[in-house]
What does this fold into?
Amino acid sequence: MNAIRACVNEHLEESRKLAAHGKVASYIPELGAAPREALGISILDKHGHSVTAGDCSFLFTMQSISKVFTLILALMDRGEDDVFSKVGKEPSGDNFNSMLKLELVEPGIPFNPLINAGAIVISSLIRGADSEEKYQRILSFFRDLSGNDKLDGNTEVYRSESATAHRNRSLAYFLKDNGVLTDDVEEVLEVYFRHCAVEISCRDLARMALVLACGGTDPATGRQIIPRRYVQIAKTFMVTCGMYNASGEFAIQVGLPAKSGVSGGILTMVPGRFGIGVVGPSLNPKGNSVAGVHLLESLSREFDWSMF
Ligand code: DON
It folds into this structure.
């Protein structure tokens, strides 16, 4: 940790310069106000040591990062066979909100649980009597993993997305028409938009990542929160699809399981060693934090973090 602490600020200030080349997401209007030049990183190990640098004090919404953990909860609720009868296991190669392959490829199930169509199906698989109970179960799972019982949803971001989500609505209605979604579409979307709008800090992300890095155990108590098999599945999806159609490049440049979100967050980990949370709201055209990806590339190269 000391070696990382000694050089992280220098890397961070270099990477921050790249923020000028990206754009803050504005298709969810409420996200458009995020600070474009912000960049922060939090790194946590299992002994409780941490390194934080840059802008780590502001909260941002999880967006697509939440999909990793709803996948895990759906697996814990339903088991592998049920989940993978409704979503595939392959990268799509398309944008995260694409509907292209839903009609072109048989069977008409989403390619994987991390694209929007797949994550909407996953939301429908979470157990609960209604959308409120499903969301509360998701939120308490996120609180458990982050060790932060104050974690909560950002209502403005939720409302902003729900009011403008024509693309996600059309994906969901298409899935309903195909019989992949059987529940009420608006109820499913409410769960999906609400879990995307859970607000988090870099440190919370690092803590959630650390649980995955430790094979599903809580680093503080040793308690197994997630069965190892489901951590393995989630980490594999993060490698193959976590950075969408930039996942191949990220695997070559950084070489770690990761998941990005359009608010600029990236959750990643060095398996067995660290959980890492990054935020940088300025995005590249593929929807990943420009400066955040650059910072992870620099640190991975410097400390030889690649798994490959
Ligand atoms: O459904 C959406 O479009 C957002 N709630 C989440 C998308 C997202 O974060 C994609 N990430 N890079």
In short: The CA atoms of residues 69 and 137 lie 12 Å apart. Residues 131-146 form the longest helix (16 residues). The pocket of 6-diazenyl-5-OXO-L-norleucine is lined by residues 63-64, 96-97, 116, 161, 168, 196, 260-262, 287 (CB under 6 Å). The chain has a mean pLDDT of 96.
